[in-house]
Design a protein that fits this description.
Two copies of one chain form a homodimer. Chain A is α/β, with parallel strands linked by helices. Helices cover 49% and strands 8% of the residues of chain A. Chain A has one domain: Nicotinate-nucleotide-dimethylbenzimidazole phosphoribosyltransferase (CobT), large domain (Rossmann fold). Chain A contains 15 helices and five strands. Chains A, B: Pathway: Nucleoside biosynthesis; alpha-ribazole biosynthesis; alpha-ribazole from 5,6-dimethylbenzimidazole: step 1/2.
């Protein structure tokens, strides 16, 4: 990290100079695909996924060390009664992850995915976004840098997820700040906000965006003012993956809001990312469409924890296996078309 | 099998007396689900799948011995030039399955699924449905009985797929006979029929259904007159799974046409079945809707081989793992809602 200048300067520079796709690996993948023992295009989206893996990893499609990274944070906005669960649940769920008792643990076991949990200063919730910035620029940049470390251990497919009581309120505020419309259209039930709780959630998002309204032209300012630690860390992890040629699967509504910050800063910033699953959270499909993406799965989940991304990783693993493991028409002695 | 009466008599009796869901296992699964460390309903369709596994297996949701059964057959209708691939490809692909070179092999490896291939008298294509019955009643019943044996080795999740040059023509004829409309709306490109080939495919389906029109009130007559060996075997396998309390995932357009025969004979006959994936074949979504089902995946594939069902099995395995492996709020010490 830079020791001079403002803390965001390095990220601004990084976002201006993102590496592009690997054209040679992409051409090689398309050439191999045309020889595999199936009618052209018959594996549909699995073929597109294989090409995407090639383009953004820079080599033949393969998934040998998939990793789910889950970032956990706490949020000052919970003091406004925006969720039916107490903030202490964030820490309790981190312990549940560590003990192997959460949904994400079972999905990682099923699909043979590594799992790392990053808890981010859970005893120090971010500022209350309705009347102050969530984070200082220094704290936000440091948390992004921390998130970049998530990929340091080595992986060839990174699934990005989160846990944080109150963070669908945060995601709604980010989307409202980025895309406009009304607060109500970006706020959903999250873990189960209904009735008065849901009304307080909408009011908090409305108040927060109004409070910060003169500072929302800059995506990184939106991140530090309206975001949270897990959001900043996810943004950092997605950026680091790009630089290190690691394709990324993004999870639900909250993870998508972190990705949206990067897309707003550079329209090409998410070209190495898939959206794993469209959540039941009402604003998610709309936010995915703003990113120009089509989610891989639609299973009506709304849990976070990286669960949607991890399920999608099972599909991505199969796509890589088909591409690398199938026989060619020539090697298998299978006849081609007669026309 | 009965040694007296007509060959179909046993199947007619079986279809009248199908076992229902296990209410006790279903209640137990719902009770456990309510205790798991997640907001109520937050796993969406994964929870529905767990309940479905409980109801139709009669025990706590588990997938320990998943099996993909692929049935292969050849079809006299190919003499009308309805497909760009020669019928010899059916045998060649069976050999490719045996050698581990096909897409279904890679998906089974990825998701740790057993795979069995059943080739059905490939040297003796069925009769040309445009001017004769595909099968005699005796042959059709024997092939259904053969299909029932597919589950004999023991499995707790059966994925049903097929391979057979010409069999999307067969599936279109079955759907047209069952549901009416026009031949053209049930015929699609299959492995890649275009232009004149596609027109010949539509004409063959039109001619076949017209030729047999006085015998299409009985679903089993539709099966033997317009079907094929792999279709009859898949119908038998789905039936046998019901009796043996094995939940079933049905693959693409052709496998769905086999299932549709059973549904026409008894509206409850597919209650133990999921549709794994909606194919790119234009008639598939419409045929799925006729069965009252919602496909689990939509990945634009159109390959058959059980590939869509096998990918869906990865989701079903994860659903069972979440249900059985997650901690409860009490055991994990996670707080519930405060309201």
């Amino acid at each position: 990290m830079s020791v001079t200048g403002l803390p965001f300067d390095d990220f601004r520079a990084l976002l201006r100079e993102l590496p592009g796709p690997d054209a040679q690996a992409l051409v090689a993948a398309r050439e191999r695909d045309a020889q595999l023992t199936k009618p052209a295009g018959a594996l549909g989206r699995l073929e597109e996924i294989a090409f995407w893996l090639a383009a953004w990893s820079g080599r033949s499609p393969a998934v040998n060390r998939p990793l789910v990274a889950v970032f956990a944070g706490n949020h000052g906005v919970t003091k406004h009664g925006v969720t039916p669960f107490p903030p202490s649940v964030t820490q309790q769920m981190v312990e549940n992850f560590a003990a192997g008792g959460a949904a994400i643990n079972q999905i990682c076991l099923t699909h043979d995915l590594g799992l790392k949990i990053f808890d981010l200063a859970l005893d120090y919730p971010t500022g209350d976004i309705t009347c102050e910035a969530a984070l200082s620029e220094r704290d936000c940049a440091a948390t992004m840098a921390f998130g970049m470390e998530a990929v340091a251990g080595g992986t060839d497919l990174l699934c990005i997820g989160e846990m944080g009581i109150g963070n669908t309120t945060i995601a709604a505020a980010i989307n409202y700040a980025l895309y406009g419309g009304s607060a109500a259209e970006w706020v959903g039930p999250g873990t189960g906000s209904e009735g008065e709780v849901l009304q307080r959630k909408i009011a908090a998002v409305e108040t927060a965006v109004r409070f910060h309204k003169d500072h929302l032209d800059d995506p990184l300012e939106i991140l530090r003012r309206l975001g949270g630690r897990e959001i900043a860390a996810m943004a950092g992890a997605i950026l680091a993956a790009r630089v290190q040629k690691i394709p990324v699967i993004i999870d639900g509504y909250v993870a998508t809001s972190a990705a949206a910050i990067l897309k707003a800063a550079n329209p090409a910033a998410l070209d190495h990312c898939l959206i794993g699953h469209v959540s039941a959270e009402p604003g998610h499909l709309k936010s995915i469409e703003r990113l120009g993406k089509t989610p891989l799965l639609a299973l009506g989940m709304r849990l976070g924890e990286g669960t949607g991304a991890a399920l999608a990783a099972g599909i991505v693993k199969a796509a890589a296996a088909c591409h690398s493991g199938m026989a060619t028409f020539a090697s298998a002695g299978v006849s081609g078309r007669t026309d």
